Amino acid sequence: MTAPRIEVPGSAEWHRLWEATGREPFAHPSYLGLTAGPGERVVGVCWSDAGGEVLLPLLLRPLPSGPGLQDLEGDWTDAVSPYGYGGPFVTGEPDLAAFFAALRGWMRDEHVLTGFVRASLGVRLPPDDVAGGYEAVHLTDNVVVSLDREPEDRWQHYDRKVRKNVNKARRHDLRVEVRDDFGDVAEFVSVYHGTMDRRGADGRYWFDAAYFEGIRDRLAGSYWVADVRDLEGRVVSTELVLRSDTRCYSFLGGTHADAFPMAPNDLLKHAVIDHAAGSGLTGYVLGGGYQPGDGIFRYKRAFDPDGVVAFHGVRLTSSTDTYERLRALRPDVDPRFFPAYRSP
C-alpha cells in the first residue's frame, strides 16, 4: 500500500496539487490555517496511484479532556477537514478506497485517533464496506444552482417568488456589485455579525474581522464579495463568495433586518449567478439549512428547484476498538455526533 505524503502550508507540492485539482478554496494552502488554534497543526495529505492524485487538507488537534481520554498512552490527536467542503480533492480517477485505507494507516502510525471530513460535493466516496474504521454518512441536502442554462432560462427556472423579489429590489433602486476585492472589512463584519446575532447562530459560525482580513490577504483570486446598497449608499446585504475553477460557494454574509421589505438578498444572489455564469463557472453552491427542509433551505432551493444534491461526511477511526470504548463512556451523546468524546 502506498503511504500518503504529508505536506505543510507553503510547500510547492501542496500548491501544485491545489492547482491541479481545480483551485478549490477549501484546499488552498492558506485557508485552513485561518482557523487553527493553539497547539493545532495544518497538514496536507497527498497520495497518488496509477489512476490519479489526491489532496486532503486536515487540521490536527490535541484531544480534549474527558472520560477515558487521559488513559490513552502517548500523545494523541484527532483530525478535521476545513469548514465547508473539505475534500478529498482529486485529479483523474484515483482509488479512494485505497486512499482512505492508506490514510487510516498513517493515522495509526501518528496516533491520530479519529478524523472527520466534510466531503466535497460530487466526490464518489467508497461504500462503507470497503474497510473497517471508515464510514460515509449523509449529513444533509444542499442546493447547487446550475449555471449552464442561458440567462433567460436561468431566470425562468427560479421560483416565481424569486423573480418577484428581484423585481421588487430593482423598484427600490437597490444597486448590486460583485467584485474580487474585499473593500471595507469592518462594514462587512458589521452586517454579518448583526445577522448572526439576530439568528442566535452557534458560536462556530462567528468569525471576527481578523479572519476576513486573512481571507482578503491570503486568498486573493479565490473569492468575490457581493454588496447591495440602498439609495443612501449603505450596504444592506453582503456576501463573501469563495470560488474555484468550476464553482463558487455562498460562504458567509448577512442582511440588515430593516432592508428585508426591499428583498436585497434575492437581488444579490441573482447578480452572483449572472456574474459566475459570465465567468465560465458551472455551479453556485448555496448550501443547506440548519435543519432538513427548514425555511433557509427552502429559500435557497427557490433559486434552482432541480439543484438539490446530497452532502456527505466521512468518519474515520484509526483504532475502532479504542474509539468504541471511549464512546461507551458517553452514553448520553447522540450517536450522530462524531467523535462522541468532543460532544459538549
Protein model, in words:
The chain folds into 2 domains: 167 residues, Aminopeptidase (3-Layer(aba) Sandwich); 134 residues, Gcn5-related N-acetyltransferase (GNAT) (Aminopeptidase, 3-Layer(aba) Sandwich), CATH 3.40.630. Strand 10 and strand 11 form a beta hairpin. Helix 4 packs across helix 7. The protein is an alpha+beta fold. Strands 1, 2, 3, 4, 5, 6, 7, 8, 9, 10, 11, 12 and 13 form a 13-stranded mixed beta sheet that branches. It starts with a strand and ends in a 16-residue tail after the last helix. The relative contact order is 0.16. 28% of the residues lie in helices and 28% in strands. Keywords: Transferase. It holds the Pfam family Acetyltransf_6. GO terms for molecular function: transferase activity. This is GNAT family N-acetyltransferase.
What does the overall shape look like? Answer: globular
Number of helices in the DSSP assignment: 9
Beta-strand content estimate: 25-35%
Largest sheet: 13 strands, mixed
CATH architecture of the largest domain: 3-Layer(aba) Sandwich
First and last CA, distance:
37 Å
Q: Would you tell me the structural class of the helices and strands?
A: alpha+beta
Radius of gyration: 21 Å
Overall strand count: 13
Helix content: 25-40%
